[in-house]
Each structure stands twice: as structure tokens, then as C-alpha cells.
Amino acid sequence: MTTAKQSVAVVGGGIVGICSAISLLEAGNDVTLMDRDDTGQATSSGNAGIISPWSIVPQAMPGIWKQIPGMIVKPDGPAGVSLRHSFQYFPWLMRFLRESKIDRAKTNSNAMHLLCGDAVTLYRDLIKGTGHEDLIVDAMYVHAFRKAEDADLDALGFQMRSEKGAELDLIGAADLRDLEPALSHDFQAAILIKGQARARNPGRIGSVLTDKIMRLGGTVLRADVHDLKPVDGAWDVTSNTGTKRYDKVVLAAGIWSANLLKKLGVSVPLAAERGYHVSYTHTGLTLNNSVMDTSAHAVASSMENGLRVAGMAEFSGIDVPPDPKRIRALEKVARSMVPALKDATPKSWMGIRPSFPDSLPIIQEFRSHPGLIGAFGHSHYGLMMAPKTGRIVADIVERKRTNVDFSAFGAERFKFL
């Protein structure tokens, strides 16, 4: 275990970078958090706000191959691949389909639980003492079904949760209307996932925790990092603000991590999976819990500033503008979930999820580049996985030994190193 104070640059100021910076500061390091944007205000700000120990079902599940064509072919479907970029995503999709075998799905689920299992407790610890504890509230995750027969507690995804200790409950249409009066009466059943929480404003959580970083003595630097270079056992980090040397670097730059690694000769299959949300303010409409429309793969949740409906998985280029068709499709989903929104005009948002085919991030020190620690690729689960990721990152930097096997998060699993 390292005892000397180390200088550490955390490249990437999303929620994973923020949590990593806090854990590193608490371990006694000299930490600089860098991002080209305001920290916590890019992709990390636009999610559905779910904080769940039970978000442990990978995207690649048995039978998904049957669903993909329908999802992609429908113009307003929940998933899509840009024709212009389809060729580059073909190898990723093939790996994704291999990960959907039942043994791989269960293995990936177990690894996800390592990162999500303490999410609620860890977030409450992070936010404690900031004066903004109300940003995290207890809630259930309501999986709502338009056909009652589709609500099956024996489905593999719910089995995975149950086996890890999740409390699940199946309710009918009448009980669902009592629980969520604003929800459409088209929903005929729901499965309730209990024992979780939701963020009332993910972006403001990022701001509050950024303030905590500075109170702990950390530096927050607005900088666009474009090069990492190992020099004499340390690392030079070059950005638009210049070059500075650090003992170690934590790479938590989301989708942009792949380009920085490529300059070092490291290739990883990281996909730019774009997600969207539409938000409705001043409607007076409220949902008491986070609600997923299981047919549309979209989640509605009440935030500080209104009702947010988030969804879509669009594989495209990093710099491609938002697709208006995706936004219109999500607006249609929102109105079908909450009919009282029919005359409301939303604001729209798009962010880029950094996704690996197995729904697991990379969290490791790269064997070929000592002192460079990866912490990226959290896909749909960045909000849930960030606090635990931060603690693992701090343990890696400190050379702290643990009794837990984190090899599932190594880049070697892709056989590119």
C-alpha cells in the first residue's frame, strides 16, 4: 500500500470522474479533476435518475437477437444504428450477441452487482453534510406493462435481481393507478422493484459533489485534454491549457477515453450509444417513483424541474447532431405514458453513453502503461456504478489489496491488449 502523497489527474468530469476524485482526495492524494465542460453537466446530467442496487441486468440478454431487428427497423423504435456508421459497429454487435448467452449474461450480472450493490448507501455517504441531502429520495422502480401477461416474476432479469436480494412485487392495474395516478390506464400490470432511490436532479448532484471536491482541497480545471504521455515513471497531461506532469492519471473521459488510449496504442471496443430525454416543466404532473414503459424501453421520473422521460439507444458518431426523429419518437412515448402531457411542449436533450458489449466498464491500471488507470465505459449504469468505481480507483492508486476479484473489469477481456 502506498503511503506517500501522490499527484493524480482525473481526466473526465462526469459522475465517475467526480466520485473517483472524491475517493482519491479522501485517501490523501493531491487531485486535479479536468473536463472541457462544467463537471457533471454533460452525459451524467441527462439520465433518468435511477439509483439502484438492482440495476444488474445487462443489455445483452438471452433472446435479444430476436428483438434487435424490430427495435432497429421501426423508425420510432427504442434502438437504432446510423447507416453511415453501421459498418464500424458490426464487430461490436457481434460481440454483444455473444455476451447474450445465458452463462455470459449471468456472469456479467454478478459483476454489475459488485458495482451497484451499495449504490444507495454510497450516494447518501457522498452527499451527507453538503446541505443537499434532499437530492436523493427513496423510491421504487416500477416496470409497467401494457399486457398483464407480460409481467412475469420468473423472467430471467427479475430472477437475477431476486437472487441478489431484491424485493419484488407484482401488482395489477387498479393498484398501479393508486400508486401512480398520472400514469396511463393502458398499463395493465407492473412489477415493483423496491429498496432503491432516485436522483431529483443528476446535474445538480454533480455540481454539489464538485463543490465537495474543492472543499476537500482538490483542484477543478476546465481543460480539453488531448494527449497523455508517460515520462520517467510519471505522466504528462496535455490540454488546451498546457502540459503538466502527474504521478498518475485516471482516465474517466467516457466515450472520449477511447481516442486518448488509441494514441497510446491501446484499442478497446467502446461504442457511442446516444441517449435522449424530453423534460416537461410547469405541468403540475408528478410520478411518485421511477417508471419504465417496458414496451418502449423508456423511463419517466419526476425531477426538481419537472417530469423527465429518458430512453433510446442510438449508435452513431460522436459529433453527429441529435436526430429530430428520435426526439419526436420520445415525445410520443412520453404522451403515451402520461396522457396529460398531450398539450405540453418539452425541452429535449441528447448525451453519449460510453458502452462496451457486456455492459461492464473498464476499471484497471493498464498493464502496458503503469500509472494509467481506466474508469470508463459504464453504459446505461454510470450513475449507479460511479461511487463504487471511485472507491476501486482509489484502491488501485493506493496499491491497496482487496479480497474481491475485479478482473471482470479488465480490458484484457476483449483480447485487444
Written account of the structure:
With 417 residues, this protein is α/β, with parallel strands linked by helices. The chain has helices at 15-26, 64-73, 86-99, 102-116, 119-127, 156-163, 173-179, 202-215, 257-262, 324-337, 382-397; strands spanning 7-11, 30-35, 50-51, 79-81, 136-145, 168-172, 189-199, 219-222, 225-231, 234-239, 242-246, 248-251, 271-280, 290-293, 298-303, 306-315, 347-355, 362-365, 372-376. The strands form three sheets. Strands 3, 4, 5, 6, 7, 13, 14, 15, 16 and 17 form a ten-stranded mixed β-sheet that branches. Strands 8-2-1-12-19-18 form a six-stranded mixed β-sheet, with helices on one face. A three-stranded antiparallel β-sheet has the order 9-10-11, with no helix packed on it. Helix 4 (102-116) crosses helix 11 and helix 5 crosses helix 11. The chain is globular and about 65 Å long. 48% of the residues are buried.
